[in-house]
Design brief:
By secondary structure, this protein is α+β, with helices and mostly antiparallel strands. The chain is about 30% helix and about 20% strand. Strands 4-5-6-7-8-9-10 form a seven-stranded mixed beta sheet, with helices on both faces. It has a five-stranded mixed beta sheet with strand order 12-11-13-15-14, with helices on both faces. Strands 1-2-3 form a three-stranded antiparallel beta sheet. Bound molecules: adenosine-3'-5'-diphosphate and magnesium ion (MG) (3 copies). Its cofactor is Mg(2+). One of its GO terms (biological process) is inositol phosphate metabolic process.
Length: about 400
């Protein structure tokens, strides 16, 4: 793993392999409050209310930190020049806050966290100033909620709780502290994405999207820039999906688009062509007769926007060999599923979050409503075949 600290104290460039030394693996924990063995419990019997409240609090505080850093980044006019995945002090700060708050709010539940970042680079001598800045940011954010400050070591320990491997047994939090870091650095969309796995299934998810307008982004007039932004989506198994203002308004229930005619559908995809083939998605859209141009935005904000019907389809086709990580999809997946949507890989298999830190997938991820899925799947499979045979 390597990292170099740029001129701006808010930005770190990092080259992460996501490989973890065996010595860092955490024993998978069971939910200890219940006296029933985990495998015998039914998901319906669990309410997950305390976990959801803790997840909402943790994500909202992390969003506060991210908003502050993004403002500073933009004022400093930093640009992402490297083709390596950027990591900012906000990625680390967000992970530290969420890890710390979840443990603080849920003291009686054994804690297992599968998260994107680790502190290996931050522990290096050359990162001292950065660690100091991260700790300062974390403490300013915690103070705004009346929480006592953490030491630099406590910040590192909180970040490193994220080394869990997840898996099919017990409960595991799944965290992307900033999803869409490239969008974050550009001043565009990003999300703080937190989900809970229980026995390998996603049972709750929270998506904080500080730059997403509260109003629909479908057919938005780009010239109107004073749209209110900052959405918090949350979903619990069998309990629906809700959206509220990040500042804490009362939640409203959301539902995916009920469009049946694919010609009327619009679709989301990654802003970054390196993350998802824009060529393949345009071929699929053509086959479906989609008229609207692709809506390209960063991060799981796409899942949030889809869950409230801003668009009807999300297409993601990474280059061959890319392995999707569970934190890039777990929260978004349940937010869409509980809003009446469906996600699968390109072969129509459901997404399986029980396999550890990665998703095992056939080719890509497609998300839509139940009515459009059969036609979408057909168009996807035909398009993939055509693309492969034309190579
Ligand atoms: N070559 C690649 N193909 C597909 N996804 C990639 C990728 N390189 C990075 N990503 C993932 O794409 C995520 C952003 O998704 P999106 O394209 O929807 O904005 C990144 O999350 P992070 O920003 O958390 O690192 C990263 O995990
Ligand atoms: Mg990243
Ligand atoms: Mg991500
Ligand atoms: Mg991330």
């Amino acid at each position: 793993m390597s990292a170099s600290i740029g001129h701006n104290p808010f930005l770190l460039r990092i080259n992460s392999t996501n490989q973890l030394p065996i010595s860092k693996l955490k024993f998978p924990f069971r939910f200890s409050v219940s006296t029933t063995p985990a495998r015998n419990r039914t998901f319906a019997s669990m309410s997950y209310d305390t976990q959801l409240a803790a997840a909402k609090k943790a994500s909202s505080l992390a969003a506060r930190l991210c908003q502050k850093v993004q403002k500073a980044l933009l004022q400093a006019d930093v640009q992402s020049k490297s083709d390596k995945s950027p990591v900012t002090v906000a990625d680390y700060g967000s992970q530290a806050i969420i890890s710390f708050i979840l443990q603080k709010e849920l003291p009686s539940i054994p804690f297992s966290l599968v998260a994107e970042e680790d502190s290996d680079d931050l522990r290096k001598e050359e990162s001292r100033e950065t660690l100091h800045r991260i700790t300062e940011l974390v403490n300013e954010t915690l103070a705004s909620d009346g929480i006592s400050p953490l030491s630099e070591e406590q910040v590192l320990v909180a970040i490193d709780k994220g080394v869990s491997e997840g898996g099919p047994h017990g409960q595991h939090w799944v965290l992307d502290p900033i999803d869409g870091t490239k969008g974050f650095v550009r001043g565009d969309q990003y999300a703080i994405a937190l989900a809970l796995l229980d026995e390998g299934k996603v049972v709750l998810g929270v998506l904080a999207c500080p730059n997403l307008p509260l109003a629909s982004i479908a057919k938005r007039d780009e010239s109107i820039s004073e749209d209110k932004t900052g959405c918090l989506f949350f979903a619990k198994l069998n309990a629906g999906t809700y959206m509220q203002n990040l500042d804490g308004s009362s939640p409203t229930k959301v539902h995916v688009s009920d469009i049946e005619n694919s010609e009327e559908a619009s679709f989301f995809e990654s802003y970054e062509a390196a993350h998802s083939s824009h060529d393949l998605s345009s071929l699929i859209a053509k086959k479906l007769g989609v008229k609207a141009p692709a809506v390209r935005i960063d991060s799981q904000a796409k899942y949030g926007a889809l869950s409230r019907g801003d668009g009807a389809i999300y297409l993601r086709f990474p280059r061959k060999g890319y392995r999707e990580k569970i934190w890039d999809h777990a929260a978004g997946y349940i937010v869409v599923a509980e809003a009446g949507g469906v996600a699968s890989d390109a072969a129509g298999n459901p997404l399986d979050f029980s396999k550890g830190r990665y998703l095992d997938l056939d080719t890509g991820i497609i998300v839509t409503n139940h009515k459009l899925m059969p036609a979408l799947l057909k168009a996807v499979q035909e398009s993939i075949k055509e693309k492969v045979s034309s190579l």
